[in-house]
Structures are given as C-alpha cells and as structure tokens.
Amino acid sequence: MAVPKRKMSRSNTRTRRSAWKAKLTPLDSVTVDGRQVRIPRKLTKAYQKGLLDIES
C-alpha cells in the first residue's frame, strides 16, 4: 500500500477529492406497456423483453 512521505495540506486534499465525481447514468426513453419510461441504457433490452419489472 502506498504511504505518503509527507503530510498533504488540507487545501490539496480537498481539491483532489472534489475533482473526483461520479457521473449520472445516461437514460433512454422506452415505451413499455403503452407508457413512456426513462431507464438506464444498459437495461433497455431487459425491459423490452420483460425480464425486469417497472415500478409505478
């Protein structure tokens, strides 16, 4: 495991942490059972095949 040789300043630590952000999942519009639903792109085929349920 990497161990720092010197103490990192508070401003440098916070800058580094603030630069890392999770991105929102891209959503697709899909028509399932006659209604328009926005779901993650990875799950589009599963919803269309009926493998996953959509909560109302």
TrEMBL record:
List the keywords (alphabetical): Ribonucleoprotein, Ribosomal protein
Q: Which InterPro entries match?
A: Ribosomal_bL32, Ribosomal_zn-bd
Instruction: Give a GO molecular function annotation for the protein.
Output: structural constituent of ribosome
| GO biological process entries | translation
One CC-aspect GO term: large ribosomal subunit
Family note: Belongs to the bacterial ribosomal protein bL32 family.
Q: Give the protein's recorded name.
A: Large ribosomal subunit protein bL32
Gene name, per UniProt, is: rpmF
